Amino acid sequence: MSNESIFKSLSSQTRVKILKVLMEKNIHISGLAKEIGLSTPVILRHVKILENAGLVRRKIVGNVHILSANITGLDKILEPFSEEYSIEIKQKESLFDAIKQLPGVEIDKVGENQYITSIDGERGYYVYEVNGKTPAVPIDQYKPEKNVTLKVKKLVPVDKKKIDIKIKD
After folding, report:
1. How far apart are alpha carbons 145 and 155 in whole angstroms?
2. Is the N or the C terminus of the chain less surrounded, counting Cβ atoms within 10 Å?
3. Domains defined for the chain, CATH in brackets
4. 85-89: long-range contacts at Cβ-Cβ below 8 A with a sequence spacing of 24 or more?
5. Helix axes 40-52, 13-24, angle to 10 degrees
6. Which three-class secondary structure state does DSSP give residue 15?
């Protein structure tokens, strides 16, 4: 799944609609065509582009083609745009001591622990990974014993469900 093919596949409103449907349910091609309101051949062309980008999976049962979304690696496409730094800390210092060296990082203390609450003015919730894994301790308590790669990620709210609540009389 290359970034170029993903960006190309997401450049069409029709393909975005297809992905939205497939994120909610698995569906066969003709059912998808009916739900989107386009002909089956047109849907097939769009599905092929999404398949080539790795965003859609197809399971064939007899002569029925069932489609499902495959968006697990979508967050990786933005990784090349993240800022990179090289920072040194002394032995027995925490990763937080490294983070404090970066400009634009705001930290708040909650109880006994400190948390990143803003980076470059973007307030929100931030989590961290060390060498691709999420540690079980707060960042201000993690003291690396060797060189590590630290990634700080902002938790971005993504709608997983939309629920219309109707009040009965």
Report:
1. 27
2. C
3. 3-71 (1.10.10.10), 81-155 (2.170.130.30)
4. none
5. 80
6. helix
Q: In this structure, are residues 18 and 47 in contact, taking their beta carbons and an 8 Å threshold?
A: yes
| Coil, helix or strand at residue 150 | strand
Distance, CA of 49 to CA of 164 (rounded, Å): 32
Residue pLDDT, tens place only, 143-158: 999 999 999 888 866 6
The amino acid that residue 153 corresponds to is: K
Residue 108 has which token pair?
A: 């708040």
**Alpha carbon 121 to chain centroid distance?**
21
pLDDT tens digit sequence for 41-60:
999 999 999 999 889 999 99
